[in-house]
Design a protein that fits this description.
The chain is an alpha/beta fold. It has helices spanning 27-32, 44-47, 78-92, 131-139, 154-174, 180-197, 199-210, 217-233, 238-250, 258-272, 279-291, 295-298, and strands spanning 4-9, 37-42, 57-62, 65-70, 99-102, 114-117, 125-128, 145-147. The structure holds iron/sulfur cluster.
Length: 316
Amino acid sequence: MEKLRLGVSSCLLGNEVRYDGGHKFDAWIVKTLGNFVDYIALCPEHECGLPIPREAMNLSGKKDDYRMLTVKTGIDHSARMLAWSEKAIAKLRSKQLCGYILKSKSPSCGMERVKIYPPHGGAPGKTGVGLFARTLQQAFPLLPIEEEGRLHDAAIRENFIERVFVMHRWHKLLSAPVGAAEIIRFHSIHKYLIMAHSPQHYRQMGKLVAEVKKHAIPDFLDTYLQALMTATRLHASPSKQQNVLLHLLGYFKPDLDSFEKQELIQLIAQYKAGLIPLIVPITLINHYVRKYNKEYLADQVYLQPHPVELKLRNHA
Ligand code: SF4
């Protein structure tokens, strides 16, 4: 399988770039996800010109107005960091990134809840965003971005990886000439994935794509991607998944006998009740897709949104 490209905070790969000369090796990012990904590793603090080791830094100021200072000597490295971030992001624009994994809690890389220390003492508030992370989010508002800590949550991890692979297919779509037919085909294979995240977006995007020929393609692509990434960001809850699974069951009404239908309905109910993982009904549906040669369903991304080796649908 062709590898996709993710940005990552360098210390998460085990590179010894932290202020104390250490790293924050993350086994899942390196050994599991790494089998499917080419990482672009950046350490903003080192690459903006600071040495290893270096004095630790933190965010200092108010909720909406803070700077990045060295902890003991109070040197302000904000301007240096922001200038480097702008240049780094300009280079990333041509890399066809599918997502970015940031190191949590860092005054440079932290995506949310980074501590901001009041300048004259007192308890820090956890409302900051690292300076590089903030620039990255502003530059790529639709890019899937997560922190390594949040990725330990199975639902967040699955959502992030799904969006990463959506972005990967989007880049592939744009790598060849795109017209209305290619957009309709792209939307068609993503229909049930979108429904699993947001039935409302599913309906709205269906109407949008039905009118694709009335629009200029570049404008349409922007509008469509915005809707797609907004929809897939929403949590695909068990009840939304159940809704999709029952829709898929409908394709097999002429093929399955009543025992087979009841068996699948029971598995879907057990999944919804949290007794078995999503992969169980999905595996049976994939079996029926092959057995009854359902070409439309065979193309549905929902049934195989990411490599099974990632085991993202194996949790109840
Ligand atoms: S958190 Fe970011 S800035 Fe800090 S060591 Fe890791 S990559 Fe470098």
